[in-house]
Design goal:
Layout (H helix, E strand, L loop, with lengths): L1 E5 L28 H9 L8 E6 L3 H7 L8 E4 L5 H12 L8 E6 L3 E2 L2 H15 L4 E6 L10 E9 L2 E8 L4 H10 L2 E11 H11 L1 H17 L6 H5 L6 H4 L7 E6 L3 E2 L4 H7 L8 E2 L4 E4 L5 E3 L4 E4 L4 E5 L4 E5 L6 H10 L7
Parallel strand pairs: 1-2, 1-4, 2-3, 6-10, 12-14, 13-15, 14-16
Antiparallel strand pairs: 4-9, 5-11, 6-9, 7-8, 7-9, 8-10, 16-17
Helix pairs in contact: 3-7, 6-7
Length: about 350
């Protein structure tokens, strides 16, 4: 199996820690190692480093080399600029097509997700690989343990082969009431954004379901063959539709399947998610600095190197960097992205 790790995002929900010059996947969010380092180390238990590929924005290629010095340089696939996952994966397929046989299986995963049950993960990966050999485009669906409104969902159907189920439909992020209904039915799974498929099957899916991307990728390959893989493909890449692979391929395909997975997964999607993963005291407070004080305060998350004192506050996230202090209600952590968009509109690039 080969692995494609998508590492091109900017992690705006982790602002002000995550910035353009060092986005989330290159930060030590959940341990002393960066998220991309943790992801590659996990996969190397089963996949050779020479068969692990990173697709990232060109401006982040140097960071990939810094964090993964053992990765062969030719295993870094550069997007001219960030796009959505359908163009990103398509570009990677064009890069890999001549390097591997058509029946080779590929795992697609994000660089910044956490998986704590690695043995279960590899068992699910083996199950997904067997289904991929039968021609299915397989996604991993996380077995939910609470009604999350932060994830999209997959409704699973009949079992196709052992451990692999039919996908009835994909659902967007629901409201809390709908998420609770999903959890009660027992056949809805969180959409992890991890996929397993044979190169031949996914290439055929692009050709049939996304002919615009497919034809542009043929032009990209012609440029690479003529001028080398470092050639400028920006004009061609900009013409591709900015759509997720879920929408552009998976929802349109008639040979999709899902493996229900209990693998200790989190996308560590923002400050609230990180707070939930962090160790807290008896009052539910978590402080980065061991020197801290609190009086009558509960369920707060404080990311600061300074000694921080809290009095009578609850459910806050406090994040301090060299130039920014962010204070917010923990339940509104998704709105950090809105703050980032405001800064973009105001052209405050020094804060991005």
């Amino acid at each position: 199996m080969i692995a494609l790790i998508m590492a091109g995002g900017i992690g705006s929900r982790f602002w002000p820690l995550s910035r353009k010059d060092k986005p989330k996947q290159f930060l030590p969010i959940v341990s002393s190692d960066s998220m991309i380092r943790l992801t590659v180390d996990r996969l190397q238990e089963k996949i050779k480093i020479t068969d692990i590929y990173i697709v990232t924005a060109a401006e982040q290629a140097a960071l990939v080399r810094e964090h993964l010095p053992e990765l062969p340089p030719e295993n870094i696939i550069c997007e001219p600029f960030g796009m959505n996952t359908a163009p990103c994966i398509g570009l990677s397929l064009a890069w890999l097509q001549d390097k591997y046989p058509a029946d080779e299986t590929m795992l697609v995963a994000a660089a910044d997700h956490l998986i704590t049950k690695t043995d279960s993960f590899f068992e699910c990966l083996e199950t997904a690989e067997k289904a991929a050999h039968k021609g299915y485009l397989v996604t991993m669906g996380i077995m939910p343990d609470y009604p999350s409104t932060s994830y999209g969902y997959i409704e699973s159907g009949d079992e196709l082969v052992k451990g692999v189920h039919q996908v009835r439909r994909f659902k967007e992020k629901p409201d809390l009431e709908t998420a609770a209904e999903y959890l009660q039915t027992g056949n809805f799974l969180w959409n992890s954004g991890m996929f397993v498929w044979q190169l031949e099957a996914i290439n055929r899916a692009y050709e049939n379901l996304q002919p615009e991307i497919w034809n542009l990728l043929k032009e990209v390959k012609s440029v690479w063959h003529e001028k080398g893989n470092a050639a400028d493909i920006g004009i061609l890449y900009a013409k591709m539709p900015r759509i997720p692979v879920d929408v552009g391929i998976m929802e349109k395909s008639d040979n999709i399947a899902v493996v229900p997975a209990d693998i200790g997964w989190s996308d560590v999607g923002g400050w609230k998610a990180l707070a939930e993963l962090s160790s807290a005291d008896e009052q539910g407070n978590c402080f980065k600095n061991k020197q801290h004080l609190q009086i009558g305060s509960t369920n707060n998350y404080v990311y600061s190197d300074k000694m921080v004192s809290l009095i009578g506050v609850n459910n806050l996230v406090v994040v301090e960097t060299e130039d920014v202090l962010l204070i917010m209600d923990k339940e509104r952590s998704e709105e950090v992205k809105t703050l980032v968009n405001i800064l973009k509109k105001e052209h405050k690039d020094d804060l991005l």
